[in-house]
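Fold this complex.
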Amino acid sequence: MGVFDMGNSRLVQESRNKFEIYTAVYDTLQKLRGKQAKELCRAIKVMSSGETDCIYLTSAELQPTVTGRVRIQHWLAIADNIHVDEDAIELKLSERISLNHPKIHYYLSVPWMTKDSGETGTVTVEVLIGPNKIIDSSFISMVSPVLQERETLYLTDLDDGPLNQLEIQVNLEPDIVHNAITSIDLLNRHIPFIKNSATDPRRTSDGSVSANDSADTGSESYEELLRRIEDHIKIGQELTRAVARWRTMQKTEENIQKAERDNRDAWF
Amino acid sequence: MDNITVKSAKAEFERYRNTYRALSSMLDDPEQRKVLMNAIETVNIGENDEIYVKKVQLRLSLTGRVCMCYTVFCSNGVEVLADRIILKESGEMYAYDPEIAYQLRIPWVYRGSLKKGGILQNGTRISLCDPMDWDFITTTSAVFSKSALRWAADREEEEEQLEIWVTLEPFMPYNTYKELTITSSPGSSMEPIMEGEKEEGF
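Structure:
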């Protein structure tokens, strides 16, 4: 995680240059032909573990997408009696990343369960991309693998019967710190938020939310939500009024001091 | 993949880019900004003095995406469990009144104590409005990228804040020009296979 400091045009320009590197590699991948493709394949290693006859990796593909990204698509064959919770699929980056020898290295873990016996397991797909002529180290050091859409496709094979195919997409997303051209504030708290703990029954004495309470915040009713929003607005309005009063007092104080100074100057 | 599917995917992405351009020009006009702000609703739950959502922004990235950016203030006493931040899409989409709706859950603990803490939640709903029309809303998915988590420095208050980016990513069933197979199941050929058509650059 980097430190973000908006408004620095030099850094924005650097970000643009970085994205140029990305688009250059993207363009090369689009024009890729036989021999280059073989070389690229050698630089990419895909390994899988935890496979069974019922769930296994069938293929992995590198794709330049229409939406301008480089993507790796993974296909897993899944037997009819296997259930995969798509929300439980995780992408983990390898911790063994060296700055001198950058690599794209990630693990995709796909937990599964049999529908009848409840037997569980996890298929792990490991992908490692080392620097090569097409995907060079400058590209590698500026992208992050990001898990995108997961979709279980249902394909019918006339010979083998129904076969489920799980499609998992990982984007090699440009990791650019200053990645905003323009923005609009939808919420902006210029003054620190102060929680009105007296009106919140779920607060503990020190103002924190207990773990159990926080778990059910998602089931809060719309009326409760509205009440909380109204509370926020009230506190905000009170603070705005307090700040206005403080500013008026400060202005008055300044005027008095100025008048005193003027009087003093006139006197001496 | 045939030419027709690639062409329709390109047309779909062109619609996304049109919305991006429209938003870009819209942000300069105060009246139009109001329309946009009315169409985007954001609610925070589980805030307290030590951790709260300080800023929510709609941003246009230089990498060509419409993004939502959440700036979360965290005092020194709390630690955000960044690895466990999740985004849940509502999953409900009505044909006549579609919307992009999702919930961002940010778990946190007090430093030095794993028992206490909570989950800061933000709910965001983007309804139909002039630039974000039916086509845009129905073909866009909210995607949270862990790699886009950043610590932001607040110049005025000299504090650090967490920035969370949610990308409104164009979701297209056919989203590739060509495929390079880099591995295949045992028994089949391991030679690379190039499929698809050659296209001009993005």
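Confidence is low (pLDDT under 50) at residues 1-6, 197-219 of chain A.
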